[in-house]
Amino acid sequence: MLLSVFLALFLPCAEKGLSAEELENLPKVAGKELTMGDECAVCLDEIEPEQIARRIPVCNHGFHIDCADKWLSKHPFCPVCRGKIDRQSLIGSAGGGGGGGEVEGDDDSPV
């Protein structure tokens, strides 16, 4: 009995990772637009300025897209700070608030 109480209090609930739809709705940015550093915490390689990266909205940490998707498909939180991703903001937001796959920060294009 005491063990089950301990486990319930101190072990986090196992949550499923993000779905393919949720992953696709996370923002994508150019590596040069990352403000929280240019190293991917999953693979520890540098994110090049011209590479497209996935940014986690809750904390603005950025990762290579493949690295982020592998991690986030198993865990619904940032691998650096453990900030939990708000799933409700990702569902059905293609082209909207979640980023919808558009690359932000390309200010070089003519208006």
UniProtKB/TrEMBL annotation:
Single GO MF annotation: zinc ion binding
Domain RING-type: 40-82
Top-level taxon of origin: Eukaryota
Region described as Disordered: 92-111
Locations listed in the record: Membrane
Main location group: membrane
Keyword terms: Membrane, Metal-binding, Signal, Transmembrane, Transmembrane helix, Zinc, Zinc-finger
Name this protein carries in UniProt: RING-type domain-containing protein
SUPFAM superfamilies in UniProt: RING/U-box (SSF57850)
InterPro entries: Znf_RING, Znf_RING/FYVE/PHD
Signal peptide: 1-20
Family matches, as Pfam families: zf-RING_2
Matching PROSITE patterns: ZF_RING_2
Gene3D superfamilies registered for this protein in UniProt: Zinc/RING finger domain, C3HC4 (zinc finger)
Membrane among keywords: yes
GO CC annotations, alphabetized: membrane
Similarity comment: Belongs to the RING-type zinc finger family. ATL subfamily.
Compositional bias of kind Gly residues: 93-102
